[in-house]
Amino acid sequence: MLKKVNILNIFMYLVFIIILGRLYYLQVINHDYYLNKLDSLNSKEVLGDSMPRGKIYDTNGVLLVDNTLVNTIYYKKIDGITTKEEIDLAYLVKDYLDLDYSKLTKSYLKDFYILTHEEEINKRITDIEYDSYKRRKITFNEYYKIKKNKVTDEDLSIYTEEDKKAIYLYYLMNNGYSYDDKIIKEYATDLEFAFFSESNFKLSGFNTKYTYDRLYLYDDTLKSVFGKTGSITSENKDYYLDKGYSLNDTVGLTNLEYIYDDYLKGEKEVYKVLNDEKILVKDGKVGNDLYLSIDINIQKMVDEILEKEIKLAKKSINTKYFDRSYVTISDPNNGGVLAISGKMYQEGGVYDYNVGAITDTMVSGSVVKGASILVGYNEGVLKIGEFTMDECIKLKATPKKCSIYNMGYINDLDALKKSSNVYQFKIALKVGGVNYRYDQAAYINDTAFKTYRDYFAKFGLGVKTGIDLQNESSGYKGSGEDAGLLMNLSIGQYDTYTNIELNQYIATLANGKNRYKLNLVREIKNKDEVINTYEPVILNTLDIDSKYIDRVKKGLKLVITEGTGYGYIDLSKNASGKTGTSETFVDSNQDGVYETESISTAFVAYYPSDNPKYALSISTPNISYVNNSSSYIYPFNKLVIRKITDNLN
């Protein structure tokens, strides 16, 4: 018995030692850890309001996009407030706010009716419908949709216009997560802002604050390129929430604002709420600034010339279906875009349509002949200086294909200078493995189209340029592959290209070596601290003998000095370039059928020829059309390019 008592005493002693040791561990050794843990349980971190987005500057540091303060009225749900109290509050507040109540949808009205007449709606649910929900044969959303369908137009007829104002306000008060500030109205009037600032103590949850919106220093110039900002959409809600955003945050929605949103967005202040006291634990930070390659002086100059010339062109004959044109200027040595302009004529006015330079495509005509003739050289079917007879090509069972006139016996330089189609046709047939005979059938090999398109892609034709904008198109490739279509491809009369592709093409020819990714953002800074500098990105290097490149460049210079491009650019600029004219079609009566034959034109150039500083491209769809009374083609590209280059220092 005594032995058992001793064992029990020893056991109790050990337990006591363990408890003392544990208490010492908790209260002494790990004191700070558990104190912090207790603190965290009694407090929570909250984020402050959004900080201003970063600004956008041009290449010379000229401010293009700034921020402006906006009078904003918001609602923050108060703990413990009931649905009835919120509805009463909406009825009280509606008369003090001028809102766009037209945004109230029938769906919102039905939601409100279900909320306030739940018992009545539940009576309309059948036993089968309710049983399906209880047995989880249908989801809550599906069950709620059934409820919504039970609400009739007669039910909704009880709501007056005043009711609808309160219902819309109630929707705004509850749209999103309960803990978020709900933006009720931005750009509130000074009177509204003052009222809610002074009366917020009696308007439970309503308050005011300053938010930020974009301010464009040059009005609509480049606005579509900068892109839009706005609220997080339902489609990308999860993406932003995962990145730590709040649903009421302003984010970049399109183009530069979207692509560089991680840099442009500011960092919010972080507060710790402890015993109802808000303590700042981390300062907020404004967003980083973008510095573009764009030169706003060049951009404005191009925009003004393009707008003026479009208005003049519409007063000329034969421009009935002409309504737009695009110009891009870049640095051929690094891919930096200096100006990207698009203008559209609509209902008597001319509007910015910059993004059309990367989205709209057209068959661009003979501008591609610089690349096309390089196919012949590099594939070994054409020799430098080789002569051939410019005469109409006739394949069996097809119409003749000719140059604009019979040019006689010409060489490769003449072919570029005069823009011979036949010279390119004969190269294309040889690349296709055809031994041409007049009026004989011609069957090309399986690789001919791929060969041409692969070479064109080396210069940026038929592929994306990589520009830092959304929705860039690479153009459209024709699906048919026969000898006649191959000849069309060789003179730019088959596949379609964007204006920005034409620019990358001529820029690659200009430097003679590299196809650079086109880009708009040059540098990202936070005040004077450089966050990121974008070095030129080489997409591919030309694997074409430099002697062939030099030969083509010699031909492109002749285009400007004595060929089809004479007069486009003052000879003192020492420029090289290529004109292009293509046969296109328009839907003249808006019936979905493109039945009216039109003429589209393009032009590409670079200068100075020996040390290129600028690469230019212009695309002008449907400048004229084919009709019985006139064949006149308005010289739009020539007029525009001459004015631009005369003013481009």
Short description:
The chain is an alpha+beta fold and 649 residues long. Helix content is 38%, strand content 22%. The longest helix has 28 residues.
Task: Give me the secondary-structure topology.
Elements: H1 2-29, H2 31-41, E1 43-47, E2 56-57, E3 63-75, H3 83-93, H4 106-116, H5 118-124, H6 127-134, H7 140-149, H8 153-156, H9 161-174, E4 182-186, H10 190-199, E5 206-216, H11 223-226, E6 229-231, H12 237-242, E7 250-252, H13 255-259, H14 261-264, E8 270-274, E9 277-282, E10 289-292, H15 296-313, E11 324-330, E12 337-346, E13 349-352, H16 356-359, E14 361-362, H17 369-378, E15 388-390, E16 408-410, H18 412-418, H19 421-431, H20 448-459, H21 483-490, E17 497-498, H22 499-511, E18 514-516, E19 521-526, E20 529-533, E21 538-541, H23 546-562, E22 576-586, E23 596-607, E24 614-625, H24 636-647
Parallel strand pairs: 2-10
Antiparallel strand pairs: 1-8, 2-3, 3-4, 3-5, 6-7, 8-9, 10-19, 11-12, 11-24, 12-13, 14-17, 15-16, 18-21, 19-20, 22-23, 23-24
Task: Supply the CATH class of the largest domain.
Answer: Alpha Beta
Percent in helix: 25-40%
Number of helices: 24
- Rounded to the nearest angstrom, the radius of gyration is 35 Å
What fraction of the residues are assigned to beta strands by DSSP? Answer: 15-25%
Distance between the termini: 112 Å
Compute the average pLDDT: 90
Q: Indicate the overall shape.
A: elongated
The parts where pLDDT drops under 50 for at least 5 residues are none
Sheet with the most strands? 7 strands, mixed
The CATH superfamily name of the largest domain is DD-peptidase/beta-lactamase superfamily
The count of DSSP E runs of length 2 or more, i.e. the number of strands, is 24
Indicate the structural class: alpha+beta
Q: Indicate how many domains the architecture comprises.
A: 3
Proper CATH architecture of the largest domain: 3-Layer(aba) Sandwich
Stated plainly, the CATH topology of the largest domain is called Beta-lactamase
